[in-house]
Amino acid sequence: MALPTLDDPFYYLANFRRVLDWLTARYADLLTAHERDFIERFDTLPWTSQALLVRLVMRKGIDFRLGRLQYAEIGETAVAVEPLIEQGWVEEGVPLTLEALFALTTRPELDVDLRAWLAGLGLGRSSGKGAWLNALQVESPSPRPLAQWLPSLGDRHLRLTIDALCERFRLMFFGNLRQQWSEFVLAELGIYRFERVALEADSRAFSRREELEAYHHLHACRERLDADEPLATLLPDVPLDAFDNAWLERRRGRLVHKIAYRCERQGDLDQARRLYEASSAPESRLRRVRVLEAQDRIADALALGEQALASPGYDAEQQALARILPRLRRKLGGAPVRRRKTAEPGRFDLELPPSSSVERAVARHLSQPGAPVFYVENTLINTLFGLLCWEAIFAPLPGAFFHPFHSGPADLFDVDFHARRRELFQRCLVALERGEHGEIIRRHRQEKCGIQSPFVVWEALDDTALELALTCIPPAHLRLWFERLLGDIRANRAGMPDLIQFMPEAGDGEIGYRMIEVKGPGDRLQDNQKRWLEFCALHEMPVNVCYVTWRADAPEGHSETASPGTGA
User: Fold this and answer.
1) In this structure, is residue 188 part of a structural domain?
2) How many structural domains does the chain have?
3) Tens digits of per-residue pLDDT, 259-269?
């Protein structure tokens, strides 16, 4: 899809028309008669009327004042709006609530016609606009047209009536409601750049109209949940039966899980347990164990926990169950079970002058001319992985890409993401064994620079850091990192150590880097950090944990004590 240039004053209209063409070509069998009728009638409107309608669609809200709609390329908006009113896509003079009135007007404009009313409520001109609204709301005035609210204003109120229809179009085109029409402009400005993936003529997010409506319904339920709607009114609208469509089922499962967690937090454990049972979210099984324990159903909790431990769905679940199950067995009178001993990273302690960033303070402190330290956190490994495996990540598999504005494949967090691309990833990772990974990473860094990616953080690695990483980190270690990342992308993209110290002059048989997790005063290791640290220590990859205490009178030198452990 070639984008119009911003030199064209009607670039936004050209983009919208391209979307309509895209939907007509790919979604003809899913469009309703109402949607097809809109597309056909839209094409018959005067150019300026089309442009004004798109301007309204792309603005926030549905209520506008004609006097504020000034666009040089459109000209007289009073003329351009008339065909829109005739089509019924814009209404004029419909009643406004008090809240909508205040959103459309300024304080001086309100003061002209509402002064007597406000004075009667004891409010002077020194009161703020918010105080005015709160006072007037107490009387619960009924909605009325703008001309009746403010007869002195002399402006026309317009209301867009096709907002829901255009939202469906946006959902069909992007496959989500997160991305906005502004993606076109950001791409044209070069603020966002996207990988060009070959799209088949039938590439689309939805294969049936029911899927589209189900997505929209789930989205509406999630918005109601986020708006803190009482669960008593929300729950009847939430689908509790599983969908056949896998990615819609994941959305449904996550929504039900969030509602169940809210019930749990509110103390409604019976409802929480029932909802966790109805959720397909991987996290719900562990929450069920916790709820059963809270309900003192220890035997049931233990049975479910042991079943989960026999086939853990993800690392965090296994980690939590290792803590929970011994406690449950003790409550049932079982013998204490010794926990499996895990590999532990080395530890060292520092006393440093206070700093706003404990990680950067440690990096400055440890860095040496021949052994520089970089604050990389999750960006280093993710970026190296994303650059090496670019072709596999952006492979044009069915269902992965269906419009030109993907920052990554739509199935990135699906359980079969890696399995669907196993051979492609293997082809990328084998370059590590052949010593070809450096060339591939450098080439992709140059050719793809600035393109959106779910892994690559372009500003994370300058030339120096990149070359040091390729020189000092053994390919076998990179492969271990990358394979664990692929095992659970959603969870394992985070939790990696904060710092890396490169030692390019390390001798033969010595490892030329070490990773360092930094913990300031009162800070503790999070579970996902513990899992990464244990993984590194298990595979004898050099990793340390640095615990920092502040000392106000600390000199510029340092005091460091180390304890035994891998990489200490």
Assistant:
1) no
2) 4
3) 999 999 999 99
